Amino acid sequence: MPVAKLTPTFTFTEDRLQALQAVVPEAFADGQVNWATLKEALAPHLEDEGPGTEHFGLFWPGKRQARRMAAQPSKGTLRPVKGEGVNEADTHNLFIEGDNLEVLKLLQKSYAGRVKLIYIDPPYNTGNDFVYKDNFAEPLAEYLQRTGQADTEGLLTTNPKAGGRFHSNWLNMMLPRLMLARTLLSEDGVIFVSIDDNEVANLRHLLGEIFGEENIIGTIVWQKSKKGDAKLIAINHEYILVAAIDKQKITKNGKWRIKKPGADEVLEYYNSIRLEFGEDHKLINEKMKNWYNSLPKNDPRRAHQHYNWSDDKGLYFAADFAGPDDGRKSRPRYDIIHPVTGKPCKKPSTGWRWDETRTKQALLANPPLIHFGPDETTIPCRKSYLFEIDSEPFASVFYRDGRAGTLELENLVGKGAIDFPKDVKTLKELIEISSQKDCVVIDFFSGSSTTAQAVLELNREDGGNRRFIMVQVPETTPKDSAARQAGYQTIADIGKERIRRVIKKLADSPQAELIAKRDTAEDLGFAVYKLDRSHFKAWQDYDGPPDPAALDDLFSDQIDPLLPGWQPRALLDEILLLQGFPLDSRRTRLKSLKSNVVVQVECDWFSYRLFVCLDATLNPATLDALPLNLDDKFIGLDSALTDQTKQELTDRCTLVVL
Which whole number is the average pLDDT over 622-626? Predict the structure, then answer.
């Protein structure tokens, strides 16, 4: 096998072209798009481009450049920061400090198509919010300057409404980030975006453009308070816009329901009684009654205390199926005969909700789906089985106390840290209804890391193994703010400290009965990474006069592809990202190899392994002892390998050199 050279690559545009080529192969020749052939293939679906043609869409100054931003390669990498996380060696959770546009680019190879859920709470563009001012020419250098890591200082800038491009500035920030976010989502992945009135209309169009109008799931209205503060219309709500990669896949899984508190525990206890007493329904009900009476009055398990007779389908309660009291006089008022007395049962004053045919079908079911009282003087009810009502559809309008998120954050990190943080309960519900227990959750406007807390707490409650990736730019806190006085220099510092304290709280209250039910160990940890320059030298074009000596110097400088001062651990992380391995991949130092430091890297997403040795020389004894398979990859410094060593490695595996 040939020797491959490892260099930083970003294939966002190439990946999209490959997807197009898979659909319309005849429009490609020698790797280039034949526009005329493509137009012919898609002719029935192309809009007219004649003079004066009008198109529907959202257009603004800078849109083309913003779209190009998504395809521009990053010149950065993610460097590990030891000591700022918790249980860093064993965790799958990540906190990344940096410009989210650059970070999203760096995550593409490792996480594309593997993220189930993205939640973001971006700047609302109120006129006072910070808005990212992306530099098209050199975004990484601009970021390092903004954060004081380069020659100048500063951070983000406000976007005043008096500015001539108020909405355009915000849209230019959001477009490339949403484009990159979409590529990270799995086929059944979803994105939730919080927003308010300032940009909700534009965001709705933007999501429709990026995800397709057919994949917009809907808009959730979040009533955050009972009162508003405006003089004309009291605005007491926000929105959460929801989009999917493929709405049809979301519709088919039917998971978008919220479990009612306590239902699982009631079912679990009921099923344990049935295992013990079989079909002795009288005894089962007696046990259930005694158990309910022993529960505290505010226990969520008492939400289902209106139980009734058991039958072959399990525990149920008698639910009213009377017609609603809406003034209609045409409700069905047919007779329902009591099975014991044979007399017509009492009717509700509003008539029946069901027509007579449906009721007859319910009576003929096995077991019958109608519950009767002791005689005809009691109005019959429908049977509502607990296993059918342990969840309810997620409402498009819901109320959450806007102060809940603030109080949660204050209890963890102190007062005044961040204005208007989201509440944990809301995010837990969003995660629960739309994802599996072992998925990846990303929030790239993470703020105080409410999403991370929601993931950790939800994993504790349902035994899940969800992993989070939080991304936050180190936006400085105001000098006279309560956050700065408490020692938080940046918003990222607040988010990291919140995660630490949530982990400590969970660790100090282990809830043994929940942990005992887990199949795998609970992940109470996170590792910290920061955006920084790549370890690889950037190629510098030569535009001077013909000068052999200058050209010789230029090429000589590229013999060693790495910048001086690189550290093996940090370089290893960049290698993983370039090879498409996630940052939480399993790393094992092969201690049996005494002559060299060799790290074996594995990930469940790949069947092959990486063997990485960054030593200046590869010892022949190490080469002989390496446990390589043909599918594996060995990565090392080109200068550390002889021609003979390269030949032997290419015979045993895939060789990649730096």
Answer: 95
Domain that holds residue 332: 259-391
Summarize pLDDT for 303-350 with one digit per residue, the tens.
554 555 455 566 677 778 888 766 666 788 899 999 999 999 999 988
Question: In this structure, is the dihedral angle defined by the CA atoms of residues 469, 475, 476 and 478, taken in order, positive or negative?
Answer: negative
- 359 plus 431 within the same structural domain: no
Domain-located, residue 541: no
Residues near 61 by Cβ (< 8 Å), separated by ≥ 6?
165, 168
Residues 249 and 101 in one domain: yes
pLDDT bucket at 1, cuts 50 / 70 / 90? low
The two structure tokens encoding residue 240? 């959460």
Instruction: Provide the CA 645 distance to its chain's centre, in angstroms.
Output: 44
Mean pLDDT across 571-600:
95
User: Does residue 89 sit in the same domain as residue 227?
Assistant: yes
Structure tokens given for 310: 């058991």
CB 526 within 8 A of CB 452: yes
Give percent of the chain above pLDDT 70: 80
User: What is the CATH number for 155?
Assistant: 3.40.50.150
Of 391, 424, 452, the last residue of a domain is 391
Domain presence at residue 537: no
Do 238 and 265 have their domain in common? no
Provide the domain count of the chain.
4
* Both tokens assigned to 357: 């045919």
Among 56, 83, 100, the domain-final residue is 56
Query: Are 459 and 601 part of one and the same domain?
Result: no
Evaluate the omega torsion of the peptide bond into residue 620 and state whether it is cis, within 30 degrees of 0: no
* CA–CA separation, 255 and 150 (whole Å): 48
Give the per-residue pLDDT at 151: 46
CB 636 within 8 A of CB 618: yes
CB atoms within 10 A of CB 133: 15
Whether 98 and 530 have beta carbons less than 8 Å apart is answered as yes
298's tokens? 């505010």
pLDDT tens column, 72-99: 888 899 999 999 999 999 999 999 999 9
| pLDDT class of 469 with cuts at 50, 70, 90 | very high
- Among candidates 407, 441, 411, which has minimal Cα distance to 422? 407
- Pair (305, 406) in one structural domain: no
